[in-house]
Amino acid sequence: MSSQENPDENLPAARATDGHAHGDVGVPDEKHPFADPGLPPHQHRIQDIDERAAKRSERTVALLFTVSMLATIGFIASFVTIPADRIVYIFPLGHISGLNFALGMTLGLALFCIGAGAVHWARTLMSDEEIADERHAIEAPPEVKAKVMADFKQGAKESALGRRKLLRNTMFGALTLFPLSGIVLLRDLGPLPEDKLRHTLWSKGKLLVNMNTDEPLRPSDVTVGSLTFAKPEGLEEHDHDFQTEIAKAALMIVRLQPENIKDKRELEWSHDGIVAYSKICTHVGCPISLYEQQTHHVLCPCHQSTFDLSDGARVIFGPAGHPLPQLRIGVNDEGYLEALGDFDEPVGPAFWERG
Amino acid sequence: MSTTTTSDSRSREKAPAGERVADWADGRLGIYSLAKANMRKIFPDHWSFMLGEICLYSFLIIILTGVYLTLFFHPSMNEIEYHGSYVPLQGQLMSEAFASTLDISFDVRGGLLIRQIHHWAAIVFLAGMFVHMMRVFFTGAFRKPREVNWLFGFLLFVLGMFTGFTGYSLPDDLLSGTGVRFTQGAILSMPIVGTYISMFLFGGEFPGGDFVARFYSIHILLLPGIMLGLVVAHLILVFYHKHTQFAGPGRTNKNVVGMPLLPVYMAKAGGFFFLVFGFIAMMAAVATINPIWVLGPYRPDQVSTGAQPDWYMGFAEGLIRAMPGWEINFWGHTLVLGVLIPLVLFGVFLAVIALYPFIESWVTGDKREHHILDRPRNAPTRTAFGVAWITGYVIMLIGGGNDIVATHFHLSINSVTWFVRIGFFAGPVIAFIVTKRICLGLQRRDKDKVLHGRESGIIKRLPHGEFVEVHEPLSQEALHTLTAHEQYQPAEIGPAVDENGVERKVKGPQKLRAKLSNAYYGEDSQIPKPTAEEYKEITSGHGHH
């Protein structure tokens, strides 16, 4: 179907409104130099006129489909023969799982060749003559609209919804209320917050236990320049609620020279230059793990909030909104570091009730 | 009576099996009427129209591979000791979710491949949707009658982001757990309801023992269910509206020019599904994604450096990293602006692009259907706005990887962050101005080509020694294509007084609309198309110059 047979199709849309649409006619002339000349004539491909070229295309497509079949057989063979733990060296990927590589490449090849074959078939052997289809307005014609409106009015009238107000209002009431049951049912998804976010496992007399060695810490274990992670005594990895408790109680301990501590309260709450801070970032709760010995800055690797541990863990850069909470520590009679109470403010990210 | 029966039965015997099956189906489903309208439906051809197909196919691949993964994955946070075949983690405590992901990766043959296809396809899906959305945006394909389909597509993009997020959180590894913690921290920042939502979502305090199971049902049932419905609706509308096309000879607003569904598009689109699937399978064969065995199981007190979300969440990550840590304390409450503002901006930034079609149609006041695509240069303000939006998005994407940028390019993390902070405001403005100028420049070039022809590269020496380049007039096809676009006139408020000399009240929105319209279509925002008179004057005058 070319443009010549169906000239109406090539008429541009009637867009008289803006007066700027060009080409109100199909033939360019003096007045309409930019008129739409219509669909250009179809250009034949080599396959359309030379049967040998078409045969070549056919063979190419068939070859691709054949490769796909072979690849699927290869997939099954790889699955059966290659052990799951075989590591192979493949340049430039390095040492990788042989099974994963073989399965992925054979599956990929099998699929890709089907696709390539189909597309090549479509491009070289199927007709590439462009056809024009008419569009129809999405909007309904006025008489259809009138019919629908009349039908609706009729239906609404027959339902008596507009006339019987009591019926309507109670129905809306019932329909509005019943979803409440669904919302109420969600109540037991979790407990109320209460003061759960304000307390951690730390309390007066709890020993600071080294996270790595599981041994209680002595002041001598904490050397200048090192960063030590600690958990409260009694919390074990196998405990049912370990993850939830450590998410609040995780502690980091560093030793500073007491004269380097700029914050007065920090000095008071420290022991012999040893200070203990919550490890949980006050931004959105990542564990802080990067310590710069020279400056006593700690950095959260998630969002780069930087705190100065020699100055009350003040925020010196990044998106955190307030300092890290400090844990007041001392030494018990046996010479172990112990907590002198819980944190006096909630650890981790800020929240509405935090105050 | 008897003759009709025999001829009837005879014709039934004669019909081939395929036709009989089709007859059977038609009698029950009416497939012939459906096929009449659609079997030879015309699809225009343009490379950018395949972007949406990539999304559709990767979505199907995700569903296929996802179903397979559910057969082996245990959505449980029960802590167990690992005794599988991955030696470095043996004896370590981890959740069943993590352990079963290790099993999928090391003990189920082909499990790792399917896991990686699933994850790669998700990345491709989101990237495809982003680029597809940009295609639709920059060519104005979102205009009437397709605004609703634009919203469907937008919803798919947003839901895709959250499906991706809940998906990569399921293995309960150190990296994804950090992402979940970030989400929980962001939820806590919401005024009044934050702590409640957090407690309800996690079944108590973070991390608790519930979120993997809950994310699982959201990831495999709730969100994909909604998305499947939206995909179907999106496709039905594409069929119903018929495809858009670029202006060109024979292509009008009232027709659609291309090739029929059967056979060409059946083969091309069907084949393309296999191409996409094959490509992603090969990606999964050669490129590792989310190696959870390297990351280890999640511990809320541990973290690795260089923690990054999947790319489509990177822009939210950037917002949260760039924001200064503002916190306001009052009457025993805390307003965590440092986290809340990024959270709100995240929604607003996305909503702006979602609502754009409605804003533009309000400014133009155009109620007609548009099936001819705009070339981006011919809608300079829209194009500039889109590029400004992308610039903001990309700057935040860079911000989301500020640590990676800093370590790779040996820059200070602080200066990268400051660049992002300033860039978020300055970048889009600069991009807007630059893009608009480029568009206008391209419009001028088009006009020049129409009026003076194309530079042929042939230098001619005139008798008196002057050298000139020969300009070749454009073909009729090119002339038409370059002048086919419409140009709006800026809307005017009208006279300040009415015909009786009484002052007219002009409402605020109207003034705003006139201003916006002027910004869109005023003198500085478009180059008037060449007119027939100009063309005649030049072509009949002093030849090609």
Oligomer: heterodimer
Q: How many strand units of chain B?
A: 10
The description of the largest β-sheet of chain B is: 2 strands, antiparallel
CATH fold label of the domain at 201-339 in chain A: Rieske Iron-sulfur Protein
CA distance, first residue to last residue of chain A: 76 Å
The major pleated sheet of chain A works out as: 5 strands, antiparallel
Order of helices and strands of chain B: HHHEHEEHHHHHHEEHHHEEHEHHHEEHHH
CATH architectural grouping of the largest domain in chain B: Up-down Bundle
What is the percentage of strand-forming residues of chain B?
5-15%
- How are the strands of the biggest sheet of chain B laid out side by side? 1-5
Binned strand content of chain A: 5-15%
What general outline of chain B do the C-alpha atoms trace?
A: globular
Q: Most extensive chain contact?
A: A-B, 115 and 132 residues
What is the average of the pLDDT values of chain A?
89
Number of domains in the coordinates of chain B? 3
Question: Strand arrangement, largest sheet of chain A?
Answer: 4-5-6-7-12
CATH architecture of the domain at 201-339 in chain A: 3-layer Sandwich
Low-confidence segments of chain B, given as residue ranges, are 1-7
**Termini separation of chain B:** 83 Å
**Total number of helices of chain A:** 8
Helix/strand structural class of chain A = alpha+beta
